[in-house]
Amino acid sequence: MNNNYFSLNEDDMNTSARHRKKIKESLEKSYKGLKSTLKNKSNLALIGGALGAHTAGCLLGYYDDIPQYDAITHLLSAFTLAKCSETFLDETGHNELKKYIPLSIFSAGVVWEIYEYLANVPHSLGDSDMEFLVALENTIKDLGNDILGAAIAVKGSFLHEIPEKGAIALAKIDNIKYNIFGF
């Protein structure tokens, strides 16, 4: 048997060391980003609010008693996840990935809705088709609220750019007025 097949040459060891170094740097950057995300007071407030809203909905029966409570909690949770993701991406220097946040939140919502459906299947065996349609409608509304909450969070983060861009646009308009009318 040829032992050379299992041995690593110098280049392979250097490549392996470079990969380990890159992985270590990436993990350190991710840890720093996660730490910053969780230290951010507005993120903590959002996380607490979302958890509190879901807990109150379950324990106090708000999901059954308050119309649209489920929609509000889905919006709040999606918004919270999107803002925390945005903070994480800012901290780790991956700003170009922000455009994928709504799709990621939607995907997480799909996974959650599948779990929610499977958790409720044993309780609904033998129920009518109408209950199935109500559950399907609820799932579609939940996913819509997930994507809406994420989109609001991501688009809202760009609102701080509007005053600056507006001022530049007004300055250009003033410059045009000056050049045309001389005042």
Helices and strands in order, then pairings?
Layout: H1 10-39, H2 41-59, H3 62-65, H4 69-92, H5 101-124, H6 129-156, H7 161-181
Helix pairs in contact: 1-4, 2-4, 4-5, 4-6, 5-6
Give an overview of the whole structure.
Mean pLDDT is 76; it is low at 176-183. The chain is elongated, with a radius of gyration of 25 Å. It has helices at residues 10-39, 41-59, 62-65, 69-92, 101-124, 129-156, 161-181. It contains 7 helices and no strands. The longest helix is centred in the N-terminal third of the chain and has 30 residues, at 10-39. With 183 residues, the protein is mainly alpha-helical. 16% of the residues are buried. α4 (69-92) runs parallel beside α6 (129-156). It has one domain (40-181).
Which descriptor suits the 3D outline? elongated
Total number of β-strand segments?
A: 0
Strand content: under 5%
Give, in order, the helices and strands. HHHHHHH
Rg to the nearest angstrom? 25 Å
Largest sheet: none
Structural class: mainly alpha
- Which runs of at least 5 residues are low in confidence (pLDDT < 50)? 176-183
Number of helices: 7
Level of helix content? Answer: over 70%
Question: What does the average pLDDT come to?
Answer: 76
The total tally of domains equals 1
In whole angstroms, the N-to-C terminal distance is 91 Å
Q: What does the oligomeric state look like here?
A: single chain
